[in-house]
Amino acid sequence: MSIMRSKLTAGLMACVIVAGGAECAWAAKAADGKVEFGQFTPPQSGGDFVEVNIGNTLISMAAKLVEKQEPEVSKMLASIESVQVNVIGLDDGNRESLYGRAKEIRGTLQKSGWEKIVTAQQKGQDVNIYLKTNGEDSVRGLTVVVMEQKKQAVFINVVGNIRPEQLSMLGERLHLESVKKAGKAVEKPQ
User: 190 in helix, strand or coil?
Assistant: First the structure.
């Protein structure tokens, strides 16, 4: 009886380990397009500070709400897992550290296999847009890092399984001009 119980316990433990491993592998795969920006603090001068984190549950609810009126938007929303937007006003107290953070994030993305699709530097603005793709068929993650020299820092991360042609629509619906531009940059010619 003791041997039988030991074998049953060992078998159950093996199942838990295998199931847990499968779940962990799925979680790692699901988070493939996620970028951790870290915590931001508002500028000491009282400037702009916006932090938006929208998860799968809220996005799924929104997809269901617009399903009948706008089926394409609903389909696009259903493919998104999370949206994170951080806008931080720059002042003398945080400018240097935010520039350092932006540089660190860009370096990490490049080392992690993200493709830089847009680099634009003009009129005190530095814009970088990166994609993490699943082959040619879908975008796993989109990350935008914008530094406006005298005004603000913007960090955006969208995670999902998004078709490239849906990115413009996503940017338009979320009123994120840089995401809209990224979509136009990766759209396939028709």
Answer: coil
Mean pLDDT across the chain: 79
pLDDT value, residue 17: 29
pLDDT confidence tier of residue 188, bands split at 50, 70 and 90? low
C-beta separation of 182 from 143 below 8 A: no
pLDDT for residue 144: 93
In angstroms, the CA 139 to CA 132 distance is 6
Q: Strands (DSSP E) along the chain, which ranges?
A: 49-54, 80-89, 115-122, 125-134, 138-148, 152-162
Token look-up 């003791």 returns 2
Encoding tokens for residue 67? 């399903």
What pLDDT sits at residue 189?
Answer: 53
For the cut 70, the answer to whether the pLDDT of residue 21 exceeds it is no
CA-closest candidate to residue 144, choices 169, 111, 120, 173:
120
* Pairwise CA distance, residues 84 & 120, whole Å: 22
* CB 106, CB 145: distance < 8 Å: yes
Centre a 10 Å sphere on the Cβ of residue 15 and count the other Cβ atoms it contains. Answer: 10
Tokens of 47: 């400037």
- CB of 135 closer than 8 Å to CB of 113: no
Answer yes or no: pTM beyond 0.85: no
